[in-house]
Amino acid sequence: MAYTPQYGPGTSVVAQNRRNQMNPDHKLEKVRDITDEDIVMVLGHRSPGSAYPTAHPPLAEQQEPDCPMRKLVKPTDGAKAGDRVRYVQFADSMFNAPSQPYQRTYAEMYRFRAIDPGTLSGRQIVECRERDLEQYTKLLVETEMFDPALVSMRGATVHGHSLRLSEDGMQFDALQRCVLAENGVVKYVKDQIGVPLDRAVEIGKPMDAEWLKAHSTIFHSLVGTAYRDDKEYIEYIQRIHTLRTKYGFMPTEE
Amino acid sequence: MLGPETAERLLNAVVGVPGIRRLMVNGPGLPKTVPYGPARGKPNPNTNRKTITVGGSDVDLRVQVGMVTIEVTDEATIEEIRTVCDRIFTQFPYQLQVGQFMKTQATLVDYAKYGPDADETMIGLVDPKRTDVPVMIQH
């Protein structure tokens, strides 16, 4: 019998959004267009248009050991070319941001190949080969998993996910990598690590509160969907809690 | 959290209320240089870190204003401050809490910095590690 993953429990819109992001068969809604050059500029790992620096010769040019696993697993484009491993890190506000660190890791593990995510409470980093990274970042930024005001790409000094929003609706950023321009468009004026860019990169208008509430993956009793309203999720988490507590003592359900 | 212009408007309106002894502005810090990462030490231009004018004196904002702690001499002042805040905060809500939020006694760190005869108006007002002094506003 073919296995159909459920991805997660819950009947609320938050639970459905989490499942949608995780399910690789679900096509994420494209919300904005960002050019490849803009992505490269904000990532800040190489200058736009330059060749990809390499960490080793392309796989085709080097002798590969006779390994059944290497025959089974096809290398990604980045691995094939011998690219360096580089990263993108996102900080997601707790005020209805459309994705959250744990959620990002789950979604990326289902959707992407050859990645190494690192998950923390307020930020999530994903490392992979540079040319794969640019593709993945493009998807993460252009689709419904991103909001210009509540999600930002921050390599270092990420503090802000749990703070109140600024009066213009932006997530706090000590380095002010992105600013809300007068025309209502968010512009990146610095790259991930806080180095000023040669030109500002427009990333789009912040989504409205209604859209955010409908596309968020975080429960929030004040600004969004309350956790307690999703009975199925509560039941699931209580079951996990019970089993974990009993585990080692009596690891069966009564 | 407030941008510098709104913070300036709020603070100017609040310092106009008689009966305020001390006032402290709090919030997440806006460092002058990048504190972490590969760009550490590079300048951090930030439109939120500005010099604002409060009650005729220049104040260098080092934080994005999120909380203002005010020490008042009389309880009636609190209601006046509430009236002022109601006029300023029309676009988004605010919270006004009443209580003891400043230090009342010198701690060990204060003792190390100011000695046994510390000026009690300084206690709890500035981080003892900082060298810059608070701004005085005359009425």
Automatic annotation (TrEMBL), chain A:
Biological processes annotated in GO: methanogenesis
InterPro entries associated with the record: Me_CoM_Rdtase_Fd-like_fold (IPR009024), Me_CoM_Rdtase_gsu (IPR003178), Me_CoM_Rdtase_gsu_sf (IPR036994)
Name this polypeptide is given: coenzyme-B sulfoethylthiotransferase
Coiled coil: none
Quaternary context: MCR is a hexamer of two alpha, two beta, and two gamma chains, forming a dimer of heterotrimers.
Organism: Methanogenium marinum
Keyword Transferase annotated: yes
Gene from which the chain derives: mcrG
Catalyzed chemical reaction(s): coenzyme B + methyl-coenzyme M = methane + coenzyme M-coenzyme B heterodisulfide
UniProt keywords, alphabetically: Methanogenesis, Transferase
Family: Belongs to the methyl-coenzyme M reductase gamma subunit family.
Cofactor(s) needed: coenzyme F430
Gene3D superfamilies in the cross-refs: Methyl-coenzyme M reductase, gamma subunit
EC number(s) reported in the record: 2.8.4.1
Pathway(s) it belongs to: One-carbon metabolism; methyl-coenzyme M reduction; methane from methyl-coenzyme M: step 1/1
GO molecular function term, any single one: coenzyme-B sulfoethylthiotransferase activity
Top-rank taxon: Archaea
Classification via NCBIfam families: met_CoM_red_gam
UniProtKB/TrEMBL annotation, chain B:
Pfam families hit by this protein: MCR_D
One GO-annotated biological process of the protein: methanogenesis
Protein keywords: Methanogenesis
Annotated InterPro entries: Me_CoM_Rdtase_D
Protein's recorded name: Methyl-coenzyme M reductase operon protein D
Organism: Methanogenium marinum
